[in-house]
């Protein structure tokens, strides 16, 4: 009898064998289990994301129309888009104007309201609920119907202006104002950015403000030297997220203005939709989709690149 | 000093109240307008003198041959299916990222984060072609299957959210369970899922709201009225009426957002937490 045997657990497997077994077990078990758990996403990624992306890139070089098999036509789609298509530059311009106006306005409202909510007063959650509510029903068609009615010629905005003797234009039917009503709708729904800002504001340590006010810093100085730098990661996050969403705006323009009047709200994704699902120019639509992807990538790239100059990550300074 | 403090507090309350009212005014107007006739629509005052409840009853049956009950049931069938498949698949995948060690894990995770930002337009055409070749048009499979594969609306975001929550569960629990003879699935099922229930609720809420709101997907994949969701029925309602009965339409659109509103008020806490967790822990 030797001593090792006595120490053995009651499993009946000799110690040496058991440890070898568990080592072997470990070497394949975790990766295997890992890929098993990962498999839904992995299959989805290849089947529904990467595969379709490659296909759409391929379609963009063909004349595919859903009814007939695709024929390779090289750069013809892109050439047509950039040189002969009159609608493409127009809808691209509308979309960029839309993004450049919506995103900053939305973030400004979100930040200022978040700062109002970041105070110790009673009923904060009530106010937060009320202010967030419009964003809840976000892109639903119901909100678009509401908006269409509010801004119609006899809608409530014009009635309201009528009280002051102002005769409002017919907002939705006037090419000058139609895009503005859509921007207003998007800005009205600043709730999710606001909640993210609010959470960020809560994380700024109070002693920073105390110390700075001892040093004689005023409110404005505190805002620019403490609040903005400390919030800058959230500003970047909200910027990127709002930018991506705004580029893809579709339902609102489709329901409220249907791209009109005179195509003044014919945003990029509506054009893409028209090419793909009413004209069935799948190849052409795919080319448009890739241009959109590159455009969003460029905007995001500029934001991320510039972020090293204005986003402040609290890496040094001790506190978490 | 104290007087100044309470005056400032009063100003705070007033400004917050003003902002809240401004934000909610269109919603209040909406409530009132859903009870108005077309003639009253442009009259002053939020609510009509005599509420026109028939907007709801007439609107409910305004689409020939079908009632909104039918569209409601369809929408629930679609959204609940999506909700269930999302929770199952995303929690499994999140468990892999949060707890299991396998080759290329970091790479896959990075790729998943990139897909968060990918605009859907770049995959929509081939997906549509693929689904139509498989005869999935006019079924709910184009919604169920992507969510079953941890994709679809919000998929990568849900994975990310759940990974963040799972990482906050102490690893000692896994070790203890492993020593007790639990396998990975056991750890996932018996330890992880019960502990991250609040996060699962958050995912469920978002999956519900976003898919309830989705219009683009429903519009391209569903084309018979029998399968129509509420959103599509509303669009049909707008398009089919010559002189638009605004009261009925606003009443029905109000009805269409009711489930979202109820869920929002029941689960506000989860809602706010989920959204800030997504941004802060990143």
Number of strands of chain B: 0
CATH class annotation of chain B: Mainly Alpha
CATH superfamily of the largest domain in chain A: MetI-like
The CATH architecture designation of the largest domain in chain A is Orthogonal Bundle
Radius of gyration of chain A: 28 Å
| CATH topology name of the largest domain in chain A | MetI-like fold
Portion in beta strands of chain B: under 5%
Portion of residues within helices of chain B: over 70%
Q: Into how many domains do the coordinates of chain B divide?
A: 1
What is the total domain count of chain A?
Answer: 2
CATH fold category name of chain B: MetI-like fold
Q: Quick one: biggest sheet of chain A?
A: none
Number of helices of chain B: 14
Question: What features would you describe in this structure?
Answer:
The complex is a heterodimer of chains A (320) and B (282). Chain A is mainly alpha-helical. Chain A has helices at residues 3-7, 15-59, 76-84, 87-117, 124-136, 141-150, 156-163, 178-188, 191-203, 206-214, 219-247, 251-257, 268-278, 282-310. Chain A has 14 helices and no strands. Chain B has 282 residues and is mainly α. Chain B has 14 helices and no strands. In chain B, helix 3 (68-99) packs parallel to helix 6 (141-148), helix 4 packs across helix 7 (155-167) and helix 8 (171-179) crosses helix 9 (184-195). The two termini of chain B are 41 Å apart. The mean pLDDT of chain B is 86. Classes of the chains: A mainly alpha (320), B mainly alpha (282). The interface between A and B is large, with 93 and 91 residues.
């Amino acid at each position: 009898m030797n001593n090792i045997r006595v120490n053995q657990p009651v499993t009946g497997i000799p110690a040496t064998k058991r440890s070898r077994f568990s080592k072997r077990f470990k070497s394949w078990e975790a990766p295997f289990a890992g890929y098993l758990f990962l498999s839904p996403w992995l299959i989805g990624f290849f089947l529904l994301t990467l595969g379709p992306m490659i296909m759409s890139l391929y379609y963009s070089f063909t004349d595919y129309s859903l009814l007939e098999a695709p024929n390779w036509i090289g750069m013809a789609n892109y050439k047509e888009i950039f040189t002969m298509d009159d609608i493409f530059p127009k809808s691209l311009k509308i979309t960029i104007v839309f993004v450049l106006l919506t995103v900053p306005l939305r973030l400004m409202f979100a930040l200022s309201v978040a700062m109002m909510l970041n105070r110790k007063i009673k009923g904060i959650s009530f106010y937060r609920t009320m202010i967030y509510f419009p964003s809840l029903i976000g892109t639903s068609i119901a909100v678009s119907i509401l908006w269409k009615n509010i801004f119609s010629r006899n809608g409530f905005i014009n009635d309201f202006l009528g009280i002051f003797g102002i005769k409002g234009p017919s907002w939705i039917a006037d090419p000058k104002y139609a895009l503005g009503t859509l921007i207003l709708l998007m800005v009205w729904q600043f709730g999710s950015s606001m909640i993210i800002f609010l959470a960020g504001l809560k994380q700024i340590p109070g002693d920073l403000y105390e110390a700075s006010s001892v040093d004689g810093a005023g409110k404005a100085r505190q805002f620019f030297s403490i609040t903005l730098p400390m919030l800058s990661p959230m500003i970047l996050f909200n910027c990127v997220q709002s930018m991506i969403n705004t580029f893809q705006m579709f339902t609102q323009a489709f329901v409220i203005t249907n791209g009109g009047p005179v195509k003044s709200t014919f945003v990029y994704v509506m054009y893409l939709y028209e090419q793909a699902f009413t004209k069935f120019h799948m190849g052409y639509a795919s080319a448009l989709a890739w241009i959109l992807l590159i455009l969003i990538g460029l905007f995001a790239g500029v934001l991320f690149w510039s972020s090293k100059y204005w986003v402040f990550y609290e890496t040094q300074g001790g506190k978490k | 000093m104290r007087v100044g403090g309470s005056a400032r507090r009063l100003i705070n309350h007033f400004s917050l109240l003003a902002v809240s009212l401004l934000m909610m005014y269109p919603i209040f107007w909406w409530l009132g307008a859903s009870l108005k006739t077309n003639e009253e629509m442009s009259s002053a005052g939020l609510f009509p003198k005599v509420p026109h409840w028939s907007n709801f009853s007439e609107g409910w049956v305004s689409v020939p041959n079908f009632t909104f009950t039918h569209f409601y049931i369809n929408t629930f069938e679609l959204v609940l299916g999506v909700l269930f498949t999302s929770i199952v698949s995303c929690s499994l995948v999140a468990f892999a990222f949060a707890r299991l060690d396998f080759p290329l894990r970091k790479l896959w995770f990075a790729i998943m984060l990139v897909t968060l930002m990918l605009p859907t337009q770049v995959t929509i055409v081939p997906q549509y072609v693929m689904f139509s070749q498989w005869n999935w048009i006019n079924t709910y499979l184009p919604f169920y299957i992507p969510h079953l594969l941890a994709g679809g609306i919000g998929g990568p975001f849900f994975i990310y959210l759940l990974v963040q929550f799972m990482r906050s569960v102490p690893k000692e629990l896994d070790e203890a369970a492993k020593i007790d003879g639990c396998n990975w699935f056991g750890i996932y099922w018996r330890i992880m899922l019960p502990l991250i229930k609040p996060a699962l609720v958050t995912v469920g809420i978002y999956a519900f709201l976003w898919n309830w709101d989705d219009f683009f997907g429903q519009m391209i994949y569903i084309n018979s009225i029998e399968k129509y969701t509420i959103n599509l029925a509303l669009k049909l309602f707008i398009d089919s009426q010559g002189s638009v009965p605004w009261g009925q339409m606003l009443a029905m659109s109000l009805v269409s957002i009711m489930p979202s509103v109820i869920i929002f008020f029941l689960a506000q806490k989860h809602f706010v937490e989920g959204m800030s967790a997504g941004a802060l822990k990143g």
